[in-house]
Amino acid sequence: MAGYSTNFCALVLDSFWQGDHLSTPETHDAVYPGLNERRNRVAPLSDCTNRLTRRQLLTVSAAGAVNLFPLSAEARDDEHVGKPFLKELGFWDYTTPGAGGMEAFEKNDYLSLLDDMAQAGMNSLMIFVKWLTTGYRSRLDFLDQSPENLNIVSDNGLVRFAIEEANKRNIKVWLGAVATYFDVRKFQSKPYRVITRMSGFSLPFQVGIFDADTPELIERIVRMFEELAIQFPGIGGFCVELEGAGAEVGHRIPLYDAWAKEKGYPPFEQLGHPFDPRTFDVSPWREYTTFSRLRVLRAVEEAIRAKGFQGELAMICETGRKTYATGQEVDLKQYHAQLPHWAGITYEYEKWDHRYAMMDFCLDQPKKEGLKVYYLPRGVMTWGMPWPLPITLEQSWQYDMEDILHFQPDGVWWFGCGTANEGAHVSLKRLEQVGYRDGVAARRALIKSTGALRKALKR
Predict the structure, then answer these.
(1) What is the pLDDT of residue 82?
(2) Is 35 exposed, middle or buried (0-12, 13-18, 19+ CB in 10 A)?
(3) The whole model's pTM is what?
């Protein structure tokens, strides 16, 4: 920033990077010990600086800091100029116990959601049926089966109904599953960590977290996705989530050393410690753990293609932040080079913290590597500790809309479509505390406030 005054540079840097705090999922504490040590909150970014795009920053910088002021809502909505860029636009939610969201949805709830989406011009819905818990009827003995889960009680009839009704409205349905979290009572392999709570809510049992090199893990993941391909015909895509797959675990060290020797990389004992592929840049470990992930993805693809599935495939590429640092867990170059037909899904739920750095990791860098990028922002989502959050849901939606229009991902799913119960991802009580009578009212407020995105959707 040569040529600018010291005071102006300090203002810009402080505006971009203030936030000596964290509010990350509790799984981050579980997967990466010590990540949440510092939670001293400071004031969120001002509306003035938090609403500036890079182009706007460069425009106003010549006039000095005195000219930094927020644009009007109309100006922000008209920022997108040119051809539509969004291939898919819709919602992302879970049928799984403890999550909230679709967990307690009945047929009328699905119909209300799908009608709202169709009226808003949305064309895509991601349904996660496996999270830390399981939200579909399974015949696999290593998956938990709650007798109170509505979709399980319906023998998957509710989700099949939603898929059928979505297809009638030209809404593409994806199915997602987290493949690294399992009930420790039912999974023979030993987890490297166990968690019992999420975002202030107790889980129904102890959940184990498993790395991608865990013995028997790939075989069980394959069986799960084979079952999903059979149980849910009519879906257009699968998402594989491997959160926690990159952790440093003792049994992985000889596996890494063998791989590193072949690649000409330093042995494990020469890597920096402790390392965390989300926030501390140890490139060889990131490359190795991505290599391990890709073995899982190839096995899943081979299995579901053999079952007749011909739709799209995607993996979540986890991002993270801490004081003065942001990071991407996946080696994006390797991922795209090895599996060019797989898309990457990135997320950002905390727009008050490292906003532009996170957009760089979530959208700019994946696009530069050639990946098809789907973005997952906070929707009707009350996850986070403490509550309420530093900014309102409405502010979060507005900031994300601005960033989406600027960075132009291939698709957007708003995380959270409403809820009919209490859960870690979305809570009725928390929604009521911020002025919404229910999940439907919050969903419709989100749709209304982000209407400009419809103009960006390819038809």
Answers:
(1) 66
(2) buried
(3) 0.84
